[in-house]
């Protein structure tokens, strides 16, 4: 199976007899979920509903997790998760494994949607509140993140960044702030923030095992 | 024009983290159509960014699965594209063969450049300040597991955001679009609650009516964050009606 991930358009039979795995299992599988996800997405692009169910099982936990982290509202995070899962179905034909892994593609859709939503909520709250009261309540999220080796590994790599790199990357990715907002929040020049975001990600990539390494 | 813009390339990290404005996203996406080095870098960094997300994996409610799968079955799919790849997603490889895409990209870039100019001035404005000392605290509060964010309009104009961590007894206050005040007066922050009204610091207002981030410490249960206009020297108790009251109270 390991050699299949770069075979564009290759047909992989998706059938009920194949165990595609369940949420969380992929990260520790020796083959990794990455190449399998790429194949599944190619099948989803052809309207394969069983492949879609398998993609759902592999990725919905990731998508929900990032949405929760960014939105800090469980109900809104579920909405975003469902939107993203539908977007995966709709846009599967636009996924190209040559340009990156299926995981990266799914997470790009998920993160972008979560960030767009949190920004819209902020400005929506702005408009609503002008007409109503000056007090607004946001739901507090109880963190319900699964403990996993993957999580530990990422935490360890984040810890290897400089403080400013880590702040810039975390505030952007988990906080949904733009680099200009991060610059404002940290009181450092915007140019510095842009640079730290980039070299922070480079260091993170190197720590996580470099490009092309399948998890 | 765009293809040679050296500033644009520095956006690679921010773009991958979705930490750009919609205008910059469009401008950078257009840039990708020309910049193969950018595309290669982006696809590598995107893998790293994805790990930040997958590390947060949660368990979805089981009943959502059937609902989502059923919804997908009723949803049409986009047809495969041969000549055009999704430039927005960094898939610009095929764009070189498409004159139409080039033209659209260039038009998008031109619009975005105009929007980006205004945006850039705003960012530069923040450069002079030296608040590195406080930034660690600010980040601590913003990323605290129990951080709660509230935003509300300021009665006299502008918007305020408070991020509070009950566990840390601290909050971070940020505002933009605040009305500028005459020299004789200033904005002052307050903690207002069961323990009374305590001054929480004077705010300096920068260009664009931006203020903060200001760290507010010593928050206790039931405290609200208030903002008043006070004499320039500040007050020990509020002397005017608050122009803003935000409750960081959790559930």
Overview of this protein structure:
The complex is a heterodimer of chains A (215) and B (251). Chain A is mainly α and 215 residues long. Chain A contains 8 helices and no strands. Chain A has helices spanning 33-44, 49-71, 74-91, 102-131, 149-159, 163-173, 179-186, 190-207. Chain A is globular and about 50 Å long. Residues 1-31, 129-144 and 210-215 of chain A have low confidence and may be disordered. Chain B contains 7 helices and 9 strands. In chain B, the strands form 2 sheets. A 5-stranded antiparallel beta sheet of chain B has the order 1-2-3-7-6, covered by helices on one side. A 4-stranded antiparallel beta sheet of chain B has the order 5-4-8-9, with no helix packed on it. Chain B is extended, with a radius of gyration of 24 Å. Helix content of chain B is 35%, strand content 23%. Chain B has 251 residues and is of the alpha+beta class. The termini of chain B are far apart. The interface between A and B is large, with 108 and 94 residues.
Characterize the overall form of chain A: globular
Rg for CA atoms of chain A: 19 Å
Strand proportion of chain A, as a percent range, falls in: under 5%
Strand content of chain B: 15-25%
Question: What's the structural blueprint in terms of helices and strands?
Answer:
The complex is a heterodimer of chains A (about 220) and B (about 250).
Chain A: H1 33-44, H2 49-71, H3 74-91, H4 102-131, H5 149-159, H6 163-173, H7 179-186, H8 190-207
Chain B: H1 6-9, H2 12-16, H3 22-32, H4 36-54, H5 62-73, H6 99-125, H7 132-142, E1 148-153, E2 159-165, E3 170-176, E4 185-193, E5 196-203, E6 205-206, E7 210-217, E8 224-231, E9 244-246
Helix pairs in contact in B: 3-6
């Amino acid at each position: 199976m390991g050699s299949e991930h770069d075979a564009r358009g290759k047909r992989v039979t998706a059938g009920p007899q194949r165990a595609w795995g369940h949420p969380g299992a992929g990260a520790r599988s020796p083959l990794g979920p990455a190449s399998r996800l790429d194949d599944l997405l190619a099948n989803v692009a052809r309207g394969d509903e069983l492949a879609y169910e398998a993609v759902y099982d592999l990725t919905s936990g990731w998508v929900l997790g990032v949405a929760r982290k960014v939105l800090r509202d469980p109900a809104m995070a579920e909405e975003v998760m469902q939107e993203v899962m539908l977007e995966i179905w709709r846009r599967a034909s636009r996924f190209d494994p040559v340009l990156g892994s299926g995981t990266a593609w799914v997470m790009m859709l998920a993160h972008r949607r979560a960030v767009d939503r949190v920004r819209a909520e902020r400005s929506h709250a702005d408009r609503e509140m002008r007409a109503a009261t000056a007090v607004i309540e946001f739901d507090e999220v109880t963190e319900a993140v699964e403990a996993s080796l993957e999580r530990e590994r990422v935490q360890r790599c984040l810890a290897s960044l400089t403080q400013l790199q880590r702040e810039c990357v975390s505030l952007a990715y988990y906080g949904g702030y733009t680099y200009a907002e991060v610059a404002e929040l940290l009181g450092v020049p915007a140019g510095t923030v842009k640079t730290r975001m980039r070299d922070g990600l480079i260091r993170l990539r190197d720590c996580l095992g470099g490009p092309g390494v399948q998890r | 024009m765009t293809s040679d813009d050296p500033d644009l390339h520095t956006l690679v990290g921010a773009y991958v983290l979705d930490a750009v404005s919609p205008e910059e996203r469009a401008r950078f996406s257009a840039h990708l159509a020309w910049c193969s080095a950018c595309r290669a870098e982006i696809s590598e960094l995107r893998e790293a960014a994805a790990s930040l997300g997958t590390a947060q994996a949660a368990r979805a409610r089981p009943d959502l699965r059937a609902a989502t799968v059923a919804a997908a079955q009723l949803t049409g799919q986009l047809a495969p594209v041969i000549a055009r790849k999704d430039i927005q997603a960094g898939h610009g490889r095929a764009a070189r063969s498409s004159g139409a895409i080039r033209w659209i990209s260039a038009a998008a870039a031109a619009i975005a450049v105009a929007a980006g100019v205004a945006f850039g001035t705003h960012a530069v404005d923040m450069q002079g300040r030296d608040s590195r000392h406080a930034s660690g605290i600010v980040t601590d509060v913003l990323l605290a597991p129990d951080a709660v964010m509230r935003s509300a309009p300021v009665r006299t104009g502008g918007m305020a955001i408070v991020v509070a961590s009950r566990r840390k007894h601290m909050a971070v206050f940020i505002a933009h679009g605040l009305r500028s005040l005459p020299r004789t007066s200033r904005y002052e922050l307050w903690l207002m609650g069961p323990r009374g009204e305590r001054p929480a610091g004077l705010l300096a207002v920068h260009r664009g009516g931006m203020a903060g981030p200001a760290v507010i410490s010593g928050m206790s249960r039931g405290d609200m964050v208030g903002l008043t206009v006070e004499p320039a020297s500040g007050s020990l108790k509020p002397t005017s009606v608050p122009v803003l009251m935000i409750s960081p109270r959790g559930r």
